[in-house]
Amino acid sequence: MATFSHLNTILSPTVLILFITLPLSKAVLDAHFYDQKCPVAEHIISETVRNASIYDPKVPARILRMFFHDCFLRGCDASVLLDSTQGSKAEKDGPPNISLRAFYVVDDAKAKLEMACPNTVSCADIIAIAARDVVTMLGGPYWNVLKGRKDGRVSKANETINLPAPSFNVTQLSQSFARRGLGLKDLVALSGGHTLGFSHCSSFEARVRNFSALHEVDPNINIEFAEKLRKKCLDPKRDHNAGEFLDSTSSTFDNDYYQRVMAGKGVFGSDQALYGDFRTRWIVESFAKDEKLFFREFAASMVKLGNVGVIEDGEVRVKCRVVN
């Protein structure tokens, strides 16, 4: 998960109309939803994710980011998986989602599930289970994923403006999370997902080059770390793959992210803001000191996020990229 969003946009009054509130769903989800209907579901998904990660180590971070980006728009309805059509540009082609990858992993799991249990396991549940599996696989916590989601039929690229930007401060972040029924603890815990992943220069270059009229570099960033980032992004227009890992242990799910933020080495402005604001600073410090606490709170917040905006009148797609 490189970030919640790579979009840094000034919001106009017309854009503000796009903001929607996604309360926690009243739909009843159940950890044992597939026990009778498709008992092999979680095994198939876990095996598919694990095999894909062997060939591409970036798969775990990409799957986790996919889950966040799906749930943060229309709720956890797999709308992020839908392909654009001739008359409608879908979420995956919105500016913040252009860098999303690993859709093929979900497609592969879905194809296997359709053979084992036709028309049973939703694409939305596949993403939620896969997100848990990649965290656990890399040393993070395990939690029982609540299941029974339905897949949505609508996906709009222009709604991706609602994804939190990497330049957001805590007030902006907390407002964005609150619209999804998530609090400050959820904000800080879920930001810990940045312990996995990589970011391209476009998401943080403004912090280390021409930051403001008064500062060449963001004054909240460790100066040596800023110089390292500058060297990584000498010519981002030429090298689109240049960037930085979000964590010094980016292939392990741990609490190193919070320790780096405390040291002024948060890659995004939104990361560093968590330590600079008194409302969230103490939570960052708590997670940095106690990894088990972070794991418990991350798992709890993932369950909570997974219940955002769950729809009751959707469908179970046969193919995740198109509606039935």
Pattern of helices and strands: HHHHHHHEHHEHHHH
Can you summarize the main beta sheet?
Answer: 2 strands, antiparallel
Distance between the termini: 29 Å
What is the count of β-strands?
2
User: What's the CATH C level of the largest domain?
Assistant: Mainly Alpha
Assembly annotation: single chain
- The CATH architecture assignment of the largest domain turns out to be Orthogonal Bundle
Binding site for Ca(2+) 2: 195, 249, 254
Binding site for substrate: 164
Organism: Escallonia rubra
Keywords: Calcium, Disulfide bond, Glycoprotein, Heme, Hydrogen peroxide, Iron, Metal-binding, Oxidoreductase, Peroxidase, Secreted, Signal
How would you characterize this protein structure?
The chain has helices spanning 13-16, 41-55, 59-71, 103-116, 123-137, 170-178, 184-191, 205-208, 223-232, 256-262, 269-276, 278-289, 291-305, and strands at 198-200, 243-245. It is mainly α and 324 residues long. The protein has two domains: 13-163, Peroxidase, domain 1 (Orthogonal Bundle); 170-303, Orthogonal Bundle (Peroxidase, domain 2). A two-stranded antiparallel ribbon has the order 1-2. α2 (41-55) packs antiparallel against α4 (103-116), α2 (41-55) crosses α5 and α10 (256-262) crosses α12 (278-289). The longest helix is centred in the first third of the chain and has 15 residues, at 41-55. The protein is globular. The model is unreliable at 1-20 (pLDDT under 50).
